[in-house]
Structures are given as structure tokens and as C-alpha cells.
From TrEMBL:
Pfam families: Peptidase_C93. It comes from Bradyrhizobium cosmicum. This is Transglutaminase. InterPro entries: Transglutaminase-like_Cys_pept. It comes from the Bacteria.
Length: 208
């Protein structure tokens, strides 16, 4: 059962959340949230996805809203992340659709990183999670390649659902370089993320 009511969960919950897979030192633990930069253009894959799936992209501008990270919410995130990762089989867009880049819900059971993200986002929204806290995010992975993950913004920090990791981890534990993501106030507005290193700010070559 999801809990968005803001009830205090105490120190035990905070320890539980950051103890799973966490090795952050005291200085790093303060980096609960990525720093936001200027607005930037949305990935072409998202724009084209919205053309074909308008219902998945609708949403009037709203106030930013984080979720309250209860133990039940934490379990839900782990369950959704693992189920989608285990159910959807990896397949590149070139192999799947014959094009370089295409974002789609993996209704046939196949997809690449963006498709995993879209399904996780949809499942959580359908379960009652606020859209404003579920942000599609473009990163550079450990190999420096474009990659997409789902950032979940909570009162305990930002956590990442990733098809390359069965665990849900704090954004600082991914080893990724964060480039840009959806704005909390509007899913069709994208913002750059604070990173001092130069990066190609897209998930695919078509966005360059």
C-alpha cells in the first residue's frame, strides 16, 4: 500500500532506505537531490512517443510533488523494478523496429532502456503514484554511453530504477553522469542537471 500522507517514519526508515546498497560517506549523504539547471529540449524519442501516445504525456503544469518514502513504497519500487527487468527482454530499436531510436511501451515483451522506463513509470502512475515524482532521466552510463533511467523523487532523496540494476539505489550510487530529465511541474518540459563535465545531453545520436 502506498503512503503519500507525509507521516514521519523515524530514523529506522532512513537507515533502512540508505543502508540498502549504500556506502556513501557523511559528505556524500548530503547529496540527496541532483542540482537542476536550465530548461533544455526534450529527447526526440519522447517527442515522437507523445505524438503516438498522447494520453501518456498529458498533464497540465502542477506544483512539484515528492512521495513519502514509507516501507510499503520502498517495497513497491523494488517489486516494479525487478518485475519489469525480468519480464521485458532487451532488444535494440534497430533490431526491434529497424530505426535508430524509438521510445515505446514494451507491449510485445521487448524493448531497450527507454521502454523499460516508460513501463515502470506507467505501472507506478496506474498504482496511484504522483506523476510529478516519476521523472524520465537521461544519463551517461559507466561506459559513457547514453542511457535512460527513472528517477523517483522522495522526501528521503532521489532513487533510480534501472534496467541495468535489479536494486533500487540512490542516484549518487549509480556511477552515472546525470544529464537531463523531465521537470516535476510539466512532463513535457525537460531540465538539464548540474554536472561540471561536458556531456552530450541526449539518450541517442538523433538528439545531438
Amino acid at each position: 500500500m502506498l503512503d503519500f500522507r507525509g507521516q514521519g517514519k523515524g530514523l529506522a526508515l532512513a537507515v533502512m532506505l540508505f543502508g540498502i546498497g549504500a556506502t556513501a560517506q557523511a559528505g556524500e549523504s548530503r547529496l540527496l537531490y541532483a542540482s537542476l539547471g536550465d530548461t533544455t529540449r526534450a529527447p526526440i524519442g519522447w517527442v515522437e512517443f507523445c505524438t503516438d501516445n498522447a494520453a501518456q504525456c498529458q498533464g497540465a503544469p502542477t506544483q512539484p510533488r515528492d512521495i513519502v518514502m514509507s516501507q510499503a513504497a520502498w517495497r513497491d519500487l523494488i517489486k516494479v523494478n525487478r518485475w519489469v527487468n525480468e519480464t521485458v527482454k532487451p532488444l535494440t530499436d534497430q533490431e526491434h523496429w529497424g530505426v535508430i531510436e524509438k521510445w515505446s511501451l514494451p507491449t510485445d515483451g521487448y524493448g531497450d532502456c527507454e521502454d523499460y522506463v516508460l513501463l515502470k513509470r506507467k505501472m507506478l502512475i496506474d498504482a496511484g503514484w504522483p506523476r510529478e515524482a516519476l521523472l524520465i532521466t537521461v544519463v551517461r552510463d559507466k561506459k559513457g554511453e547514453g542511457h535512460a533511467v527513472l528517477t523517483v523523487k522522495t522526501d528521503k532523496g532521489e532513487f533510480v530504477l534501472d534496467n541495468q540494476n535489479e536494486s533500487v539505489v540512490a542516484w549518487t550510487e549509480t556511477g552515472y553522469r546525470f544529464v537531463k530529465r523531465q521537470s516535476q511541474s510539466d512532463p513535457n518540459v525537460w531540465v538539464s542537471l548540474g554536472d561540471t563535465k561536458p556531456a552530450v545531453s541526449t539518450a541517442s545520436a538523433r538528439d545531438q
